[in-house]
Write a structure and sequence with these properties.
Layout lengths: L5 E4 L4 H6 L1 H11 L3 E5 L6 H11 L3 E5 L10 H11 L3 E4 L10 H19 L4 E5 L16 H6 L7 E3 L2 H6 L4 H7 L6 E4 L4 H6 L1 H4 L11 H12 L3 E4 L8 H14 L3
Parallel strand pairs: 1-2, 1-8, 2-3, 3-4, 4-5, 5-6, 7-8
Length: about 260
């Protein structure tokens, strides 16, 4: 497989982005990031953002789109926004808690994602789901099935499994095993550091180290992504306050470069 380009999840620098969109995107491009993924409700019009990105030669490789913006009354404008931005990946970063309490709830969510995938396909877009930590607890002691398995075991291959490595590991998931289990599904993969030992007593402490200073088996992650999972973009996300945000994401990128990525 050819080299996987590295993008930045802009949620990592959300305050900087809100204060100075153009300046922050320029700084990110200057570090050497090859793409960006946005998150949440937009602070700018799609036309404005497209202009900034085109000037920097920085493609948009995803948008973490709130669940509310892919409902019947909002989907048309969401499609138009992403088409203008030239973004293919409409990724849902979380689901309402009241809709995801039981296995049956997750089966209904699988139906929702399958229907959404069909609607977006007509416009050349795809959807997917991004995990936190709660999706990796088995439903009961008699089964290994988790909410993650319920969702991706019942959705079409076209529904992207955007695995967040750090969130998965913090929730007891086997990130490498998941990437290998769902072949071709993690077209965009979040590289988020997590130190299992530090996070055992304090989950937040587990997220403090940058990539390479944590306990993730990065070589196994890269192997799975590049040989099985079908990853087209690595997306760095850092969510601790151990370092200033722009410094943290630059450190992470440098570490990945040192690993040969």
């Amino acid at each position: 497989m050819s080299r996987v380009p590295i993008a930045l999840e802009l949620y990592s620098v959300r305050n900087e982005l809100k204060a100075d969109t153009a300046g922050t995107l320029k700084a990110v491009a200057g570090m050497g990031y090859e793409g960006v993924e946005f998150a949440g409700n937009p602070n700018n019009t799609a036309k404005e953002l497209r202009g900034y990105l085109d000037d920097l030669g920085l493609p948009c490789c995803g948008w973490h789109t709130p669940y509310a913006l892919v409902q019947d009354d909002t989907l048309e404008s969401t499609i138009e926004f992403n088409k203008t931005l030239n973004n293919e990946f409409v990724i849902i970063p979380g689901l309402p808690g009241q809709l995801t309490q039981t296995r049956d709830d997750w089966l209904k969510m699988a139906d929702f994602f399958n229907a959404l995938a069909d609607k977006l396909a007509d416009h050349g877009l795809v959807t997917g789901y991004h995990n936190h930590d709660r999706e990796f607890t088995p439903w009961d002691e008699n089964s290994d099935e988790t909410a993650w398995d319920t969702l991706f075991g019942n959705t079409k291959d076209s529904v992207v499994m955007q695995l967040d490595t750090g969130n998965a590991i913090s929730g007891g998931g086997d990130a490498v095993g998941i990437l290998n289990k769902y072949a071709g599904r993690s077209r965009t993969t979040h590289l988020k550091p997590f130190h299992a030992k530090a996070g055992k007593e304090d989950r937040h402490a587990g997220f403090r180290p940058i990539i390479g200073k944590d306990t993730t088996d990065w070589s196994a992650v890269f192997e799975a992504c590049e040989n099985v999972a079908g990853t087209e973009w690595y997306i760095v996300e850092y969510e601790s306050d151990a370092f200033p945000p722009l410094e943290a994401v630059e450190r992470c990128l440098k570490a990945l470069k040192e690993m040969g990525q």
